[in-house]
Amino acid sequence: MANAQSSVFPDFLTDEFQFRGHQAIVVKPTIANADKHWVWRARFWGHEPQLDKALLNEGFHIVYVDVANIFGNNEAVDIWNDFYTFVRKEYGLNEKVVLEGMSRGGLIIFNWAAQNTEKVACIYADAPVCDIRSWPGGKFSGKGSGTDWQRCLTAHNISEETVATYEQIPLFTCVAVAKASIPTIFVCGDADDIVPFSENAAVVIRTMETNGNSPTLILKKGIGHHPHSLADPSPIKNFILASLN
Fold first, then answer.
1. Which fold would CATH assign to domain 2-132+169-243?
2. Which of 64, 74, 139, 148 has the fewest Cβ atoms within 10 angstroms?
């Protein structure tokens, strides 16, 4: 386990290592908060890091294990289950974690949360993939990605035919998240043509509302898939901090 300063977070010590063959990173705050709160980032390590930096300054640990190319499948959930146990034991972290998922990171945060509702403090979903038919499938209005689509079908052991009735995606797993009353915030661009809002987050928001949850939505006007996050991450940070009270 290498302990060093990160180019992304140069003011904080970072552990970088392999976990079950996957890249893993833990960034440690200068002084951990009393409750040892932590954020689990699911995708795009180091991209738009302003929220992670703000939370490091609040004493949060930031953790990451890369399961992006298995698209939130059962193997990804198993790896996250083991990683959760490992980082809690190794770093003494809180039982409940803040989940942060950008783009395809939406697949694993909702799928893992649905099976581990008691371990989730809140969810921050940023332009999340919620329906694999939308991305990477490109079956509706979005661009899709042919290479990623084939990888995704293989990862989930499904086909072009069986995907139509496949339910191990956030469109369906969000029901358990909603019923567990997990606070959830979405940050999306209304002009996203890669992971269209109307095909992904909007559908999950409606489903969560139907099941008794009221997610918060920040919809960025005229913004596409990038950039993620907000230039000033205070609204997201404040939502997370309020969810922990």
1. Rossmann fold (3.40.50)
2. 74
